[in-house]
């Protein structure tokens, strides 16, 4: 294919992806009550699922402080068109999130024809695993990381006489940042897989720099969580588990590559 033909093919992939995002965004816009009251504003109420689970755990271990009866803040809007603008922008963001698996699939359809047969075979299932990891990270960010951050930051006071009245945009920004950050962090195993297939990283290198990686993970957890030890540990442990899983993935990739090269060498010797 010529360069113009590649651009034409890319254009249609982008058009189909844009249509998918628009469809999801339109659905999110029409489902306003569910989108805002149940989904987005859920972590701002004491009856949120995560808070209920913490309360149950608190009763089991005799720690009543884990039960939340009041969120300690009020969400408000100070701009005339603020709620409409938030409705539109949030619907578009939800459209991107829901359409992410399809977006990646369209990207893969554009890239895969340029790969060698063995490269396509080695990357089989990439769309599925990328989507699964993204969804897992999204759920972890929404149900674990975001509630912890919102509860700590919005309930923190320097003086009892100061009332926390949180702007709607600030609340949405915190929720979106925390949730999407976890979603993309959970893609670490797939990133390592492709880097290992390209020969840019090995499990030996990852083991060698494990201590450095732990420091980086702690810094990332400190950035995306409130400044308390429990929240940082809750976020750090899954990321460390993903790093260890990535080491195993790099080891498997290396083993398969060595096996394939040995087989090709044996075949070539047999032909000679």
TrEMBL record:
Record keywords, A-Z: Cell membrane, Membrane, Protein transport, Translocation, Transmembrane, Transmembrane helix, Transport
Main location, first listed in the record: membrane
Protein function: Part of the twin-arginine translocation (Tat) system that transports large folded proteins containing a characteristic twin-arginine motif in their signal peptide across membranes.
Protein name (Swiss-Prot/TrEMBL): Sec-independent protein translocase protein TatC
Entry GO terms, CC: TAT protein transport complex
Pfam families assigned: TatC (PF00902)
Membrane topology qualifier: Multi-pass membrane protein
Name of the encoding gene: tatC
Transmembrane domains' residue ranges: 12-31, 84-105, 126-145, 178-196, 208-227, 233-253
Quaternary structure and partners: Forms a complex with TatA.
Family note: Belongs to the TatC family.
GO MF terms held by the record: proton motive force dependent protein transmembrane transporter activity
Domain of life the protein comes from: Bacteria
Subcellular location: Cell membrane; Membrane
Organism taxonomic ancestry: Bacteria, Pseudomonadati, Bacteroidota, Cytophagia, Cytophagales
Species per Swiss-Prot/TrEMBL record: Hymenobacter jeollabukensis
One Gene Ontology term from the biological process aspect of the record: intracellular protein transmembrane transport
